[in-house]
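Teaching note: in complex prediction, the entire set of molecules is handled at once rather than each chain in isolation. The prompt given to students was simply: 'Predict the structure of this complex.' The entities are:
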Amino acid sequence: MTAAGLFLIAFLASPDSFAWLFSPMTRNGAPAIYTQTPLWSLTLSHLALVAMAVTASTLVALVLAILVTRPSGREFLPLARTITSVGQTFPPVAVLALAVPVMGFGAGPTLVALFLYGLLPVFENTLAGLTNQPARIREAARGMGLTPAQRLWQVDLPLALPVILTGMRLTAVISLGTGTIGSTVAARTLGEVIIAGLLSSNTAFVLQGGMVVGIIAVMIHEGFQALARLAARRTG
Amino acid sequence: MIQISHLTKLYDGKPVVDDVSLTVERGQIAALVGTSGSGKTTLLRMINRLVTPSSGQVLIDGQDTAAIAPHLLRRRIGYAIQGHGLFPHRTVGQNIATVPRLLRWSADDIRARVDELLTLFQLDPDAFRDRMPHELSGGQQQRIGVARALAAKPDLLLMDEPFGALDPVIRAKAQADLRQIQRQLGTTLVLVTHDMAEAILLGDRIAVMDRGKLVQYAPPADILRAPATPFVEALIGPDMRPFHLLSLTPAFQIATEGHAIGAPIPREATLRDALAECLWSGRDALPVEGGGVVTLAALRQRAAP
Amino acid sequence: MTARLDRPGLLFALIGLVGLVLPLVQFKANRIVPGDGVSMALPLAGLLALILLGGCLRWSHGLRLAAALAGLGTVIAALGGTARALMADGPALARVAPAAGFWLLLLAFALMLTDAVTRLRPALHWRWLMLAGAIALVAMVLSTGWLDQVSVMREYAARRDAFLREGVAHLYLAFGSLGLALMIGLPLGVAIHQAPSARGPVLSVLNILQTIPSLALFGIMIPIFGWIAANVPGAAQAGIAGIGVFPALVALFLYSLLPVVSNTLTGLSGVSPATQEAAIGLGLTRFQRLTWVLVPLALPVLLAAIRIVLVQNIGLAVIAGLIGGGGFGTFVFQGLNQTAMDLVLLGALPTIGLALVAGIALDLLVQTLNHTTPRPA
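The expected output is the structure of the full assembly:
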């Protein structure tokens, strides 16, 4: 994992030193490394886009999940469950394409699509974490005289944390991959490299774009898994 | 008849079952007793080759089991386990019919056999044949598990803690039913249990296993009167021995001429039941159904080693 | 009497009323330029407002269902009617595209419908009937031609043949890759169930495959298959080529492997040890145990995998449009290139429809199956 991270940093810092790795895949003397925009800057803007979308969707999904599990929001719970399961069948690419007429081209529609699509995993997992708690823990918390708010903050949310983190992991990994498609609507992401490769039949570009996103995805995946394990260990 | 000779199972070079030899006569019940890790379950599972022996042999009616393909061997031997292991996606009838189907019985024969077994286990065929296992109580599931093991009329039935998952009341009834059905069918039965009381109640002979070795193989009365090692004694529980002894004999066997007041006890009730009834109702003697009385003095004498 | 208000109903009314205020359609001079908003005819808007406000009352679920259907019908009718009226005296190049008002109203009534169905808790066979009814209704509305003047339908009319062709290609991609994944994934899942030591390596490879961004995986397939077609004898004759449907099919197949393999493993591992032990003890052969016991018991989990894969592949197949693999994605990316949003819709809407139907149908199938073979908790 560390090796992959170091390799990624080295590659982004000085892509040209790795030209030998990609040059066998070029034809007719095409460049081996994408230079239109610096790779590190595309990576940063890609990550920024994903981070913004994941943060926003996590916050909104958390609030919504907490709302529908309170007594006053219970009426919305069955509907929320149905929307989540139906919403997840919406293809991310279609969501992205449909955001364009409303938002125009650029980072906007990508952000909206990533945000909307990212809501569902976090919402679904938070809901599962908050509702699947063992009845005896709920009873014990009530029996000790915790108020509903105290129960939420001191018992329910900490116990649901590992599941919530799993939802965030799904959201982040999906967003990272879907973010590449954002380049088809002119968002500045690593997809730009891949699409440039597709248009000019330059496999080296496709591969280096895919590689950077892939390594980051694996690292995010592992990172969230480690966090979830940590949270799970704390609660035993 | 099963003859087990010098049977050994090594795991990582350590013997789990260590040079065990014993014989179970046709129509008898052998109860394998021991603490967990004593090798009793491994010994049982070597009989139908769920575990392959490291050395030694098992002969069933003189035939070496190693010479038969394992799955064909198993179809000839009934096998019932704790938690019953019923197939949750098949009806009661289909579960019972498993081995007859494997043996390609005709559909009519299978249907007749299923109904016969359900009746034998006091379950109405029309009510139970098409139910799913999860619709049954624990006691009913256990009975179906045994019925399935008996479906293809095996001469030999192996049971691994068959009553382990049942509560005490249902377990007593299940044990009594098993005893009766076994006598009726004449099936040879090898049973694994960790419960000495169950072994004494059901076993014609009890095999006590300790750390892979067979330490004593004898009828219950002999085990109670002359435990071969301190381990066997501990397994009986010294303070329980009088009660175990009493549970070996039915009341009518020691009934004498006389007269006693109060409700009579059944003929087949054990002396242990009679003692409990004496103490509970404060009587010195109990009438036995069909004539005779059992006295407290006679019980006390019987309970002495 | 002061009946308490229905809160979900209030939410839908709010969304719907905002939709009523916003323009129903955009009237554009041609398919590329932005246009002017046009609102709904006042009587229809009044009717919709009534339905929306009525939905805030504590109606019975059945009445709510009927109201939602009436609302959806009215919105669709208004869209078609407005388009007809505008196009009747507009220039031939002009377009009437659904606008924010239409989408919000559609959302409001779709939510109302979903809510009503959820609360009705209909029996399984009713839900099957509802799904079939919904598909039939959509087909009927489209076949009446009432919506023919709406921009998306104009795009459709202009490329009827291509639409059919790409639709078939899309289904071929989604189902073909699923079929391949089942053919390879099921045996692989069974194999790693039997050989626990192989589980770690196999699953990590499949996990890594899953992290490669779809766009890149599709892209990488092109040169790989180009090379195979050029260098492996007979490959080109067998239809393998670096361009076209083949690279897309294989990329989708690779994405599908993880859900199929891991769910096969989960399903097989979920069979209780007592059941497996009993199956061996009764003398079932290895093959009989697999076909009589393990596979039937693992079936619901396998179907869940099929649902995941099918829905995922219907969505991802859109990307095939970007690498010349065909499918509805062709329209999406053509539309994005030409900034012709109606064309984007022509690709995106059927994709969403397919994914929805596949997802709901397979959910129902899983429930039907669980219904016939329930298990103890």
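Point out the following to students. Chains B and A do not touch (no CB pair under 8 Å). Chain B has 14 helices and twelve strands.
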